[in-house]
Design a protein that fits this description.
This protein is mainly α and 196 residues long. It has a domain at 47-182: Orthogonal Bundle (Tetracycline Repressor, domain 2), CATH 1.10.357. The protein is 76% helix and 0% strand. It is built from nine helices and no strands. Helix 4 packs across helix 5 (77-90), helix 4 packs across helix 6 (96-109) and helix 6 crosses helix 7 (113-137). The chain is elongated, with a radius of gyration of 19 Å. The protein starts with a helix and ends in a 7-residue tail after the last helix.
């Protein structure tokens, strides 16, 4: 394994063990068995290394959810949505350190334009992947509509995950979300005004 791969592997371990905010360059060197100069040579900065490692973890997470969503080829689009929400909830504890690291990175992005751009790209890649899943689940959707649906699903998923990270006992369950969707969707699509 070369220095670049060793650094990424070490960065992934540091994200899981120490988080984004608490990982130092020296931590990365110790975890990877490389040296400080390697970070600058291969990535330019500690932050760029952590961001790429975070992106790799995020991509793998999305791939894992996608496999679960398509485990049943005969599932309806709503059954796939429910499967994705159930997968998110079932994996909260397994991926807790990664989620916390991502939140720590988001908090710093406001003041670090490069980090902000990299995290925005992380969301862009997620939208592209989820839009592909949406198009495979619903026939006849345009690319722009699939992208809009993907953005909505990502927003719901992130909100669900944040609630489960903070307060799993009172966070909505996938069943709660499906019940709400079954009530809200017909009401939102109705042409009649709602009663007061």
């Amino acid at each position: 394994m070369g220095h670049r791969e060793a650094l990424l592997d070490g960065a992934r371990r540091c994200l899981m063990e120490r988080g984004y905010a608490r990982t130092t360059a020296r931590d990365l060197v110790a975890a990877s068995g490389t040296n400080l100069a390697s970070i600058g040579y291969h990535f330019g900065s500690k932050e760029a290394l952590l961001n790429e490692a975070l992106q790799q973890c995020f991509d793998e997470y999305i791939e894992q959810i996608t496999r679960i969503v398509f485990a049943d080829p005969s599932a309806t689009p709503l059954q796939r949505v429910r499967a994705s929400w159930e997968a998110l909830v079932s994996m909260v504890e397994q991926h807790r350190p990664l989620k916390v690291a991502f939140v720590e990175a988001l908090a710093q992005a406001e003041r670090v334009p490069e980090l902000r751009a990299q995290l925005a790209e992380c969301y862009e890649r997620a939208r592209t992947t989820v839009a592909t899943v949406v198009r495979a689940s619903v026939d006849g959707l345009s690319d722009s509509t699939a992208r809009q649906v993907a953005s909505f699903l990502i927003a719901v998923c992130h909100g669900l995950q944040m609630q489960w990270l903070l307060d799993p006992q009172r966070a909505p369950t996938p069943h709660d979300l499906m019940t709400a969707l079954e009530v809200a969707l017909p009401a939102a699509l109705s042409t009649r005004p709602a009663s007061p």
